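Hi U.,

Before I forget, here's the chain from the pilot set. I'm dumping it here mostly so it's searchable later in email.
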Amino acid sequence: MEEAKKTKDGKPVDAGVSMPHDKGYKKSLSRPEEFLHFLKKYIGADWMLELRATDFVLCDKEMLERDYEGREADLLYRVGMPDGEEVYVFILQELQSSVDYTMIFRILMYVVNTLVKHFLDMDKKTRERAGFRLPAMVPIVFYNGQERWTAVTNLRDYQRGGDIFGNHILNLEYYLVDLAQVEEEYILSTNTVLDNIMYCDKFRKKLELAGAIRRVYGRVEGLGRQELEEFRNWVKYILLSVCGDKLAVVEEILSWAGNGEDDMAFKYNIVRMFEEEREEGKAEGKAEAILDLLGDVGAVPEALREKIQGQKDLEILRGWLKLASASRTVEEFENLFMK
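Structure:
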């Protein structure tokens, strides 16, 4: 049996959380036109600007080499450059909350393993010619964690005394797209499925995520049926990962989003779904949900905040949650609350 994957601190990886992100990003980036859009908008290096989607060929899974831990790169493209040469561009999606400080070494392994395979697959006479050259390998790391990416981005800095020897030691650098550092409005300045997924992925709090989903639903509807379905499936995976795989509940939530439910009702239903799937004893979650709703309509007095946070009876908290969703101001909630 394959050993369960673990985080750097030895804890098991929660596959239900990481997989939803992976499915959405990988599907979008597997389309050459979406991958090219990602390159031009979020990296924008000069050599990318004249490329067209027809210059990109997604390589078969068999071509994906492994790093020192046996993990593959996520996607590998063969790219025809304007001068007729071919290069390889590969992307690693670092869809976890913590920074991987070994990333540059992982990338080194991908590059070396791929180039060794390419070299050995060539006819011996061909590779021994004076004009033979290996294809360039261009690495990209896409990171969606909340913590700022602080790992070194080049191999020279990963070596002791690397700054002393200049070009006489091996060097390699990767392009980094750190989602937390990309401005929300810049993401929304163009409208693709990938843009909308990236925008929603910036929000981790329940109400913020609900609002982001609502905001982009109208945008993706303008893209076409296939794009809407792709985005809807990504949202479905995310919601399933936090509500115990209850498909019927998720489908109901998605129908609210698509049928124009008013924002407060949609937010309440998102919160209700999240909260009802948590352990019964976690009253703190419901108190947080109430305060989140009230925070949307005004400042919450400290005394009221303390009373809500101090309540441990789940039935009472459920009633307060309904009151909060129906209140247009904090004062209105307090009046209903006192009855």
